[in-house]
Structures are given as C-alpha cells and as structure tokens.
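As noted in the main text, all predictions were made from sequence alone. Below is one such record, for Type II toxin-antitoxin system VapB family antitoxin.
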Amino acid sequence: MIFKSVGEGRPYPDHGLGSRDWAKIPPRQVRLDQLITTKRELDLHSLLAKDSTFYGDLFPHVVQWQGNLYLEDGLHRALRAALHQRLSLHARVLNLDTPRPHP
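Prediction:
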C-alpha cells in the first residue's frame, strides 16, 4: 500500500494558510505510508505532465492533526515518488497538534 489511507476531504479545522504562509514552513522528509490523502481522485494529466511542479510550491503540503498526517496538496507529487519506488518525499508539514503563536 502506498498511503496509510485514502480519505475524502479535510477532517481537520481550517488553518487559513495561504501560499506565502506555506512557503515559510521548511520542508522535511515524510514517509508515504504515513500519509492520509484528502482526495480520492487525481487528474491523470496532472500526474504525467512534465511541468506539473512548474506552477506553485515544489513541496507537497501536509497537515498534522490528531497524530495523523494529511496530504492536503501535492497528491501527484506523492504518487510520482511512489512510481519511482521512493518510500518518502520532502513536504511542508503544518502541525495543528501544537498551538501556534498569535501574531
């Protein structure tokens, strides 16, 4: 099995992060078999496109909530890693289990 589970939707509360906020989170290595997807379907064109990472963040976005890791954005990148027989990938991980400081 590639992922821990295939989910549908985001079970965690809205975090309100935009692309600039995500960019401030340093990427770290995450095992594919620890991820729970938030999408059941993927556009095959996105998976096979050579420039799929040209627009947007190079790193998938993962949300840690209640001890689980949810793959919020970057499903095509995670599947590409699996197709290349990699067990992990670098992702930006937002930890909602730890209280964030208020601005």
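Residues 1-9+25-42+54-98 form one domain. The chain has a mean pLDDT of 87. These features were considered when defining construct boundaries for the mutagenesis experiments described in Section 2.9.
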